[in-house]
Amino acid sequence: MTAEKRPLDQEKLTFQNISSIIVDIEGTTTSISFVHDTLFPYVREHLNEYVKSNWTDSEFQEDLKALKEQAEKDVSEKMEGVVAIAESEDEEVVREAVIKNVLWQMDNDRKTAALKQLQGHIWRKAYEKGEVVGHIYDDVHECLKSWVADGIKVYVYSSGSVEAQKLLFGHTKEGDLLELFSGHFDTAVGAKTEAASYTKIMEQIEPDGGSDRSTKSVLFLTDIPKEAAAAKEAGMQAVLVAREGNAALTDDAKAAFKVINSFADLSFEGNCKRRKVSESDANTNSAVNVDTKEALDDVDMKEAHDESTEQKTGDSTKDENDSAETKMDTSEAVDTEAKDQVCARKPVEATEEKSEVCARKPVEATEEKSEVCARKPVEATEEKSEVCARKPVEATEEKSEVCARKPVKQLKKRVRWFLRKVTR
Asked: Given 3-state DSSP classes, what are the helix, strand and coil percentages for the chain, each rounded to the nearest 5?
C-alpha cells in the first residue's frame, strides 16, 4: 500500500492559476488493494448479518427500495446473470434475493448508487468500531494541506457514495482529513466516464458555470484514462496518477495525458503568490495593529504624565494659594490689631440714644447715619467675641447704625481686654 517512489530527477508538472482540484479515490488517493482486499471483503463477510439485523430500520428500507429499483432496471435491460428481487410475502425469500443481488453486483464490480449506498452503511459500522482504518498514500496528506494553504479548493469525485468517502477520509491513519475538502461528489451527478457529469460538477464549484476560463482553472486527478478523457471533454485539465498496484497505462494514455506517480510531482504557480500576498497583508495588518497599540500606549502614558504634572502643578498652586491665604490672614490679623488700637484710642461717636462701636473700619457717617461695620468678622479671642463687620444695619431716624451680628457688650469686653494688654 506504499506509494511508488518518485525518481529524484523527475521534473514537477507546473500549473498556472489552478483554483480547484478534484481527486478520485481508488488508485489515486487510496490503494486499490485497500478497497478490494479490506473494504469489499468486509461487506461480503457482514452482509447477511447486517441485512437481518437492520431489516426493519428505516435506513435499510431506503436501501432496499433502491436495490429493488435497480434490479428492475437490470432485468428490463436484460443484464447477463442479473438476480431479480421478486415481491413476496415471505420475508425470508426477499432477504435471500437481496443478498444474492448485492453479491452479484459486487462480483461484476458494479458501481450503482444502490450498491454503493448499502456498502457505505455497512462500512460505517466498521469505521465506528475501529475494525477498519482508511488508507491514504504517504504523500496525500501533506500535499492536500499545501494546496489548501495555497488557496486551492479540493473536491472528491468517486464512484463510492458521499457517505463512504467521508467515512474513509474521516478515519485515516493520519486522522480526520475532512476539513481539507470543500465538497464531495458521487455517481448521483452521473457516471465518471461521461463528460456531462463533470459539467454538472463545474456548475456547482465554479461561479462562471463552466466557461473556458473557469474550467481551465480546475484540475482532475484520476488513474482511469476514460475518466480523464471525460473531464477533458468538459473543459477541465486532467492528469493521470500511476500508483503502485494500478493497472498499467497504455502508450496512448501516456501520450494523451500527463502522468504523475505522486501528488508531490505537482507544482502550482499563482496560488503561492496569492498566499504570500495574503500572508504579507496579514503581517502588515499585524504590524499596523502593533504600531497602533504602541501609539495608544504612548498616548496613555502621555496623558498619565500630563495628569501627574497637572496634579503636581495643582498641588503647587494650592500650596501657593494656601501660603498666600496664610500670609493674608497674618496680614489681616496684624491689621486687625492696629485697627483695634485705633478703635481703642479714638472716641466713639454716639447717636441720640446709643451709638455702637465700629470694630474694624469706620465708615464715614452721614447726617442720618452713624458709622457702620464694614469688614469681615474677626475671630473671637479668649472671650470668643467677634467683631461686627459684615452687614450694616440701616439706621432709622431714632437709631444710628449698629453692628448687626454681635452684641455691643461683647465688643466692650474685647476693648477692655485689649486695653489691659496694651497697658502691660
From this structure: 55, 10, 40
Residues sharing a CB contact under 8 Å with residue 200, sequence separation 6 or more, in sequence order: 189, 190
Spell out the residues 6+ positions from residue 378 whose beta carbon is closer than 8 angstroms to its own. 336, 359, 360, 386, 387, 389
Q: Give CA 348 to chain center in angstroms.
A: 90
Length of the chain: 424
* pLDDT, tens only, 114-159: 999 999 999 999 999 999 999 999 999 999 999 999 999 999 999 9
For residues 242 and 223, give the distance between their C-alpha atoms in angstroms, rounded to a whole number. Answer: 6
C-alpha distance from residue 73 to each of 84, 88, 100, 303 (Å): 10, 18, 16, 83
Query: Partners of 15 in the beta sheet?
Result: 268
376 contact partners, CB below 8 Å, separation of at least 6: 360, 389, 390
pTM over 0.85: no
